[in-house]
Amino acid sequence: MDWPHDPDGEEGSEGGRKYGQAVIAKKIDEDEDFPLNKVEFVDEFGDHPIRLDYERVVSLSDIFEHVEGESFGDFVEFHKAVGKAMRENDFWFYEGAEQFVTGKKA
């Protein structure tokens, strides 16, 4: 896929390779972006690359297809919803992630 910027470049990872939720979190300004509207966020960043692991890159919109909720009141609420969607839909890269999905509410 042609990305608007290199997922491992300065704009994608601030000079060092960052993965998954850390890349998404860098797109948020905690002091100015909340309450955050999901549709507006995806409209702005949906085509941006999110590196999940050393091999796989997906678009932000691929992840947000699974994020529940239409708006988020603060960073913690946003972060929990994104993390839950990533764990439940195989966008979370680390051994044992599934133990945090079953029976847990974000």
Fold topology:
Blueprint lengths: L9 H4 L6 H6 L10 E2 H8 L3 E3 L5 E3 H5 L6 E2 L2 H14 L18
Antiparallel strand pairs: 1-4, 2-3
InterPro entries: DUF5785
Pfam families: DUF5785
Notes on the protein architecture:
The chain has 106 residues and is of the alpha+beta class. It has one domain (10-100). The chain is built from 5 helices and 4 strands. It has helices spanning 10-13, 20-25, 38-45, 60-64, 75-88, and strands at residues 36-37, 49-51, 57-59, 71-72. It has a two-stranded antiparallel sheet. A hairpin with a 5-residue loop joins strand 2 (49-51) and strand 3. The chain is globular, with a radius of gyration of 13 Å. The termini are far apart.
Count of separate DSSP helical elements? 5
Strand % is 5-15%
How is the largest sheet built, in terms of strand order? 1-4
Helical amount: 25-40%
Task: Give the beta-strand count.
Answer: 4
| Helix-strand category | alpha+beta
Low-confidence stretches: none
Order of helices and strands: HHEHEEHEH
Short description:
This protein is an alpha+beta fold. Helix content is 35%, strand content 9%.
What brief labels describe this structure?
106 residues; alpha+beta; two-stranded antiparallel sheet; 9% strand
